[in-house]
Automatic annotation (TrEMBL):
Lineage top rank: taxon: Bacteria
Pfam family, one: Asp_protease_2
Lineage, broadest ranks: Bacteria, Pseudomonadati, Pseudomonadota, Alphaproteobacteria, Sphingomonadales
One annotated GO molecular function: aspartic-type endopeptidase activity
InterPro entries, sorted: PDZ (IPR001478), PDZ_sf (IPR036034), Peptidase_A2_cat (IPR001995), Peptidase_aspartic_dom_sf (IPR021109)
Peptidase A2 domain span: 47-123
GO biological process, one term: proteolysis
Keywords: Hydrolase
Segments forming domain PDZ: 293-342
Annotated protein name in UniProt: PDZ domain-containing protein
Length: 381
């Protein structure tokens, strides 16, 4: 079943010039508003994979590795955004993306359960910078498509803003950006992040970014598990000469990167057309019409949820949020939203969007014990 995006793609399409040859465009599926999913082949199996520039190495879920017969794994520990995780290493993995084949020296087999639970369906593979570095990636959000052309094949016109890509000590990609008008700092380029902006707790504290601002908490899932982070809204973020206002942000007290102070996720990057050429060390951005942009989602429920095929489980209740004020607690289980039962179509249609509705909207939530609660959405950070 194909993924559906938030809303409909805009009809207006900007011309794509600058490539040495006409790009071969392929379908780009966008799950839950901001997760980029493309068809790929790994070891001969056709799957749907998440594009994840924030990971230096491609990650494969344990169930997929088992199906592919990847039994010879070398134990390793890797650094996630908030800590270390136990993983396995498999060698010489063939990956094909958009017709371009690449044999990876290694790939990581990891527990992607926390990421899958947040997404609401199994994620079997995350294509990292090791795959994306094999070409030049173009993302066209107006028509939900992408191209994977040869590295060095793009010569931008003046309407594109160039940014230099840096490489951290752990091979993370980063660009320099300014938050709230402060001096530019290195922020990881992370296509795989559903957080528009993530900053280390130390940087947020040093720059007093929470001073006088409403803030709350949220549950953040990664390969290292689930962590509780602070949420707030950054007044603005500047990427070169481009500016985005009112950006939902996270302060992560367990940020582990030594080369960056945070990352820029897909909701923020999705305000622009994108061309990424890792081998050339360049990222190009171009403003796009509002209707074509990915939504910078802001939760107004105060509930952190893990989705299964039959229910939503509350894993976190945001401090001071609408759910906290209404007596919700971790462990509560939701069987239906607005009269629609939770099933495998929850994140494939539009039902998942209820948490991001307008402030003041009342949402009926039926629990697994048969009772129904009404939650009034509100801005709380």
């Amino acid at each position: 079943m194909p993924f559906r995006s938030w809303g409909q793609p805009a009809n207006r399409q900007q011309p794509w010039r600058g490539f040495a040859a006409k790009p071969i465009w392929r379908t780009l599926n966008i799950g839950t508003g901001d997760t980029l999913i493309a068809t790929a082949t790994v070891s001969g199996a056709v799957i749907e994979a998440v594009l994840d520039s924030g990971s230096g190495a491609t990650m494969i879920s344990k169930p997929l590795a088992a199906r592919l017969g990847m039994t010879k794994m070398e134990p390793r520990r890797i650094n996630g955004l908030g800590g270390k995780a136990e993983v396995g290493l498999v060698r010489n993995v063939e990956v094909v993306l958009a017709g371009q084949a690449r044999v990876l020296p290694f790939a990581i087999v990891a527990d992607l359960g926390a990421i899958s639970a947040a997404f609401g369906r199994p994620i079997d593979m995350m294509l990292g910078a090791d795959v994306l570095a094999g070409g030049c990636v173009a993302l066209d959000f107006a028509t939900r498509r992408f191209a994977f052309e040869k590295s060095g094949s793009f010569a931008p016109s003046p309407d594109w803003t160039p940014l230099v890509l840096g490489h951290g000590t752990r091979k993370e990609l980063f660009v320099f950006a300014s938050v709230a008008g402060l001096d530019p700092v290195p922020l990881m380029l992370d296509f795989g992040s559903s957080s528009a902006l993530m900053l280390s707790g130390a940087y947020v504290e040093a720059q007093s970014l929470l001073a006088g601002k409403a803030n709350s908490t949220a549950a953040l899932g990664g390969v290292e598990g689930v962590h509780i982070v602070k949420t707030f809204t950054a007044d603005k973020v500047n990427l070169g000469t481009l500016q985005v206002a009112s950006v939902p942000a996270i302060a992560h007290d367990r940020w582990t990167s030594e080369s960056t102070v945070g990352n820029i996720g897909m909701p923020l990057l999705g305000q622009f057309d994108i061309v990424l050429d890792i081998s050339q060390g360049r990222l190009w951005l171009r403003p796009i019409p509002a209707k074509a942009r990915l939504p910078m989602l802001k939760d107004r429920s105060g509930l952190g949820l893990a989705a299964s095929p039959t229910e939503l489980t509350v894993v976190h209740v945001a401090a001071g949020g609408p759910a906290a004020r209404s007596g919700w607690a971790a462990g509560d289980r939701i069987a239906a939203v607005k009269g629609f039962p939770i099933d495998t179509s929850y994140t494939r249609g539009s039902l998942w969007q209820w948490r991001y509705g307008p402030a003041g909207e009342k949402v009926a939530l039926k629990l697994t014990d048969g009772t129904t609660r009404t939650l009034k959405l509100a801005d709380y950070y």
